[in-house]
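Protocol step 4 of 5: obtain the predicted structure for the target chain.
Materials: sequence only (see below). No template structures provided, no constraints applied. The aim of this step is simply to have a reference model before the mutagenesis design in step 5. Sequence pasted as it appears in the construct record:
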Amino acid sequence: MLLVKRVRLGAQVEGIRRIVRLAGGNGLFTCQEQGRKIFGFGNNGNNGGKKNEDEEEEKEVIPARSNENTLPSLGFGDAAPKPDVVLGLGVSRVRFPGMVHSLHLSPEATRAITAERQAGRPYLGLFLRKENKSSSEGQSSEEENDGLRKNSFEEEGDKSEAFSQSIRTLPLEILSEFQKDIDPNDIIHTVGTFAQVHTMQEMPDGGSQALVLVHRRLTFDGIKSTKRLPPLLKVKHWQKEEINQNESSNEIRAISNEIVATIRELVQMNPLYREHMQFFAQRIDISDPYKLADFACSLATGDSPQLQQALEAKNVLHRLNIALELVSKERELSRIQQQISQQVEAKISSQQRNFLLHEQLKAIKKELGLETDDKEALIQKFQHKLNVLDYPEKYKEELLEDEQNKESLGLVPIVAKKAIEEELQKLQMLEKNSAEFNVTRSYLEWLTSIPWGKLKKEQFEIKQAQQILDAEHYGMAEVKDRILELIAIGKLKGSIKGKILCFIGPPGVGKTSIASSIAQALNRDFVRFSVGGLSDVAEIKGHRRTYIGAMAGKPIQALKSSKSMNPLILLDEIDKIGSSASGRGDPASALLELLDPSQNAHFLDHYLDIPVDFSNCLFICTANVDHTIPTPLLDRMEIIRLAGYDLEEKLHIAHNYLVPRALEATGLQEKEESTNNQNLPSITDDALRALIKGHAREAGVRSLQKLIEKICRKLAFKKVQQTEITENPKQLLVDTTNLNDFVGQPKFAKDRLYDVQILPPGVVCGLAWTSMGGSTLYIETTKFNLIPPSSSSSDKQATEKNFQSPRLSTTGQLGSVMEESSRVALAHVRAKLDSIGLQSTLNGHEIHIHVPEGATPKDGPSAGITLATALISLATGIPVPSNLAMTGELSLTGRVLPVGGIKEKVIAARRAHISYICLPYENERDFNELPDYLKQGITPYFAQTFDDVLSVTFFQSGEEANNESGVSSSSSSSKNALTYDPNILNKLKQAISPSSSHLPSSSPQ
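Step 4 output (C-alpha cells):
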C-alpha cells in the first residue's frame, strides 16, 4: 500500500504508480510530506498478466551504461542494492524505511541527482542535519524545503569569481560545510537512511520535486569526495533486523498490541488515518515489531530529535517504546483537535439552526401578511411618522401623553415635507446593503424625529411663576423681574417670541439652576448644552452628510430631545467658547445666526440642509466674565449681571436651602419631616456665620454647600455611632464651640490685611472686582534716595541734576492696564506736588508700588485714584484713614472715571468692615440701586476730580478725623501716634479745589 500526502495529478501520480510496480508485491508503503499522509497500495509488476507500458518508460529514464558498473534498480528493503558510496543529502526530518517520501530539491541537488540517475546510480543517503551551533553557519529551517542560508566560499577553479562574489546563497541540503574544516559529526547525525529516487518533476525555480523510496538504515563512515556538492559519502548498511531470542517476546507482543490499539483510536478520532488503518490491518505483518515501529514513527509529527532516536535505536524494545510514545502523543493531539472541532461544529450548527428558524419564521409571517421585508417595513415606518407629523389630529391617540399637551400640533413645513418625500423615493431605489442606503436612512431618521410645528403650551400666571422662582432661589431680583416681565408680555400677546438673555456673574451664584427654574415657570422643556471649549463649528452647524458618522448640530439635537419647537435652551459657559485657531471654523461666529432674533427663524443646519425655525425658543447664556465674549455675539444678547452674595444672603440660603438638602441627602432628615423637630441634628446661625466668615468668602455658595455637606456627613457618622451604643441618642448640635471639629481651623483669620486703626503713610485700601466676586486690595508704596552721599557740594548738585525724575517700579503681577494707571497716577501726583513746591519729596527717589498677594495676577481700570492717593500719602507723610476704601480710574488731568462691579465692591467693603467708600460721581446711580441692607452702615463719597478724593481723604472735616484715628501733627505728637508736618498739610489744602456740592459733611472716622 502506498501512503501519499494528497492526490497528485499528472506525472506525479504516474511516478507513484511506477514506484509501486518497481517495488513488487503488495507491501505497504507510505509517502510522507510535511506530516500529512494518505494511503494507497501497489499491484504486482505484470498488472494482471499484461505488459505495462510504464515499465518500458521507466527503463528508458534510467538507462544502463556500458563503460561503468551499474547497480540493479530493482529490489525493496533488504533486497535492494548496498553501495558503499552514495550521494549525501542533509534533511530536516527523519525518513523511515519502507516508506515513500516527497523531497523538494534545490537546483544544485537536482543537477547532481540527475547525473547520478543517468549514470545508473539513483541512490541517496538521507541524514538529519543537527541544529546549527555556530552563528556563522546560519540557522537551519524546520520546513520541508530546508530553507536557505548565506555562506562565504570560493569555488575551485574560478578564483576571479570568488573575489567578485564573496557571499553566495547555498541550500542547506547539499552539505556545503563539508568543504570546510568542520567535523561532519557536528553537521549531521551519523545514522541515516538509504533511499532510491524514482521520479523527479521540474519546478519553476530550477529545482525539482522528487519521490524517493526508503529501503534501510545506514551509518555515515566518512567522506569520499567533496569536489562537487552534494558530497559523496562512505556508508555502511545495516543488516536485516531480526528479533533476538534473548529478548522478552511477551513484552514485545504487549507493546506491539498497544501500538496497534493506539493507532486504531487515532483513526477513530482523526478521519485522515481511516484509509491508512484499513490497509494497515491487511498488508503489514504486525508480528514484525521492527516494521511496526517504523510505521508507527512515520505517522508521528513529533520533534526531529525524538524521531532520530527511534531511527538510531537498535534494540527492538527501545524502538517500540519510542514509537508508542510518539503515537500516544499523536492520539492526544487528535483528541484535542476533535474537541475543538466539536465545539466549533456545535457553535456553527447552532447559528445555522437559528438562522434557518428565523428565515422560516420570516417566510411564514410574510405569507400570513404579518410582516414585510425590512426595506418595505422601513419605508412604511418613515411614511407613518410623516403622516403623524402632518396629520396629528388623525393619529392623536398614538402620541405620548407629554406630546398631547401641545398648544399647536402644526403641519410639517413644505420644504421639510418635500425633502422627506424625495428621500423616501430615493430609499426605494437603493439596495439595502449599499452605503448610500444607510446614509439616506440616517437622514430620514433625523428629518422625521424633529418635532415640526409642535409647540408646548406655556403658562402665563405671574403668581405661580413667582412661587416657582422663589422656591429654589433666594435674591436674584433682577433676573426674576425680567422673567416676570416676559410672562406678562406673553399673557398680553398670547405668546413669547424667542429672547436671548445672558447671565454674567461669578461661579456658584445659581446661573445654571435659575435657568431650569425659569423653564419650569414658563412650562417649557429645558435643554442644556455647554459650549465651553467648543472649537468645531460642526458642533453648532452640523456635519456634511458626505462624512462618515455625520450628524446634526447641538441646536437640532436640542429640538429632537425636547420634542417641541419652543424649548428653553441653555448655552452654558459661553465666555469659554473655543477660537478659530483650531482650523475647524469659528463656533462663536456660527452662534451669531442662532442667537439673532432676526435670523434664527431660518437657521440652516449643514446636515439637514433645510431651514429650521428657532424663533420660538428662549435662549439663556451663562458666563463668568464678558470681556472674553466676542463683541458681535455680546451685542445680540441682553446682559443681566448677577452679583455675589453677602453674609446675610449666604446665611439665608444656607438656613433655608443648603442645610435641609444636606440633611435629607445624608439620611438625617426625611423629606416630609419638619426642620423644627427637636431630635434632628442642627447647625446654629452663629455657626453658619462663622463658617461663612472663616471658610466660604467667595461670591457664590458652592464652597459653602460643600462644607455643609461635610458637616452633615460627620453628623450622620456620629448618629450611627450613638445608636449602636444607646437606644436614646442625644441631639447632635453644631455651634461655634465645636465647628472646628467638623471643618478644621478657619482659612481666613482676619477680614483685612491691615487690621489696625492707623495705616502707614503710602498705604491705601482699594476695592477690586474679580470673577469670584469683590475683594479689598491694598496698595503699598515706598521710596528710597537714589543720590549717593558726596563730600563736595558741587558734586552733589551735579548728581541731583542726573536724578531729577523719580524712577517707578511695580510688583505684584500687575497687568498692562494697572501698569499704565500707575504711570498716569505718578505723573498727575508730580504735577500736583510741583504746584505747591513739594516736588523734592519724590525727585531723586525710586518709588516702588506693590500690591500684596503677588501670586495672584491683577489687572483692570479701577485702581487709578487709589494709586494716586497712596503716592500723595507717601510724598507728604500724611496717613490715610484705615476705615476708608476707594475705587475709580484717574485721567491724566485728574478726572475720576466711572468703573463697574459696584455691588461686588460694596459687599467686599462690608465684609472688611469698611465704613467709608469713595466712588466715581457717575457711579452714584449704581450705588443708589443697591438694596438698603447693603448700604446700611456705609457712608459713600462721590468724586468728580482727584481734588475731591484728596478732600475726602484728608480735609473733609479738618484734622479732627485724623486725631480720632490717632493721627496728629508734629506739634502735638506722642509716642504712639504717627506725625506729619502741618505746613505740608496746609500747602496741600491750598492746592485743591473740591466740588463740595456732592460731598457729604461727614468724614471718615
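Step 4 remarks: The mean pLDDT is 76. The chain has 33 helices and 34 strands.
Proceed to step 5.
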